[in-house]
Amino acid sequence: MSMSKLKNVIFVEPPGDDYTCPICYDALQEPYLTTCCGNHFCRICIENVRKANDRCPMCQTAPLDGVINKHLQRKIKELKVYCTYKEEGCQWIGHFGKMHDHHLLPDKVNGECQFIHIACQVSIHCKVTLPRKKIVNHMNNLCQYRQVECMYCGDVSTYHNITSMHVNQCVHYPLLCPNNCSNQTYPRNQLTTHLTTCPNQKIDCTYSKMGCTSKIKRQFLQHHLETNMFQHQLLMCQAFEELSKDKQELEVKVKLLTQEVQSNLEDNQSKCLKFLALNDKGPLYFSKMAELSILNPVAPLVFEIPLDFVEELCTKCEQTRRRHFHYTAPTFYSQPFHNHPTGYKLRLSVDVICCCSCCGDEQRAPVNRQFQPVPVDRQFLAQHPFESPFQSSTAPVNHGTRVKLATARQNKQALGIQ
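-> structure tokens emitted (418 positions)
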């Protein structure tokens, strides 16, 4: 296996010209014998020549060809040499073939020669190069990229990060009080708590909300209150006068807003009545009493089913039974209404039942007595309060069937509404 070329090799006994490379003038390393003129060159030197022009540097023959002279290579390896770091203090003397092992075995850090220059092995970011006898101390104690543990919180990071950034964030790092109240240190996460009781911490006067602008050290607050008692009383009087004026202004605003709300409520009630009058065309009809119930919560709500609708229902029922089918009447819904001027917007679902002779029971009521409130607008997150049916009664009249609901007050009691 080829190795890097050793430079400035010092032999104990100078070798002859037969052991010297005519290109670099150093001892031959991996001697390469050319076939053209029989001269020897270092293998690395001859490879550089090939890359340039591929001509023999001695006879200029091209292309350049040859082999490694292993016999000469063994002789050169047996020559005695000094360590290349002799001038730095290394006293090693050995065979030229053992120079590489002396420098780099068993590894870069723990090799035999203590004077060879080794790059720091901690991190590629560290560019320090030192003699082997110093590099270990550098890697363990001086390298900025060595791993260390914060002595206060136990976090592990590089020495550079711990000393430059972590020290400014560590919650357990000890700090002196910024007010110099004592020489005691406090962990960073407890310093704020200390400042709430620090005697040298400047705080606002107790009457700051009244207008006192003084900032006093906590230990002198009581003295400030005692010496400025008259000024504080004047500030309290001024603050009371301002509050009285604000109270009067708010009362005027509340009165105006109340009048505006009352006016809007009356206007909305008027619009609601007009809307009910324009939409009085469904299978279930609002009577005038229903309109009055919006203005008078005590009045009952009355819905009327027209006679022509009942007759049409009986006709469809009879036609269906002739085909030996059971007729299921549809469910109709009332127009929307409010259970109170400021209450919920609802409509009723009504199951209509045929009462003709074809059904076998002429006395049956034409409508189901259970009226379920169906919410129209649910613009709130609370559960809808109307889960029980309204109290209701039915009675035939000359123009159909009238369904009468209990009063709003009675319905509230039935539904558990205060």
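The mean pLDDT is 75.
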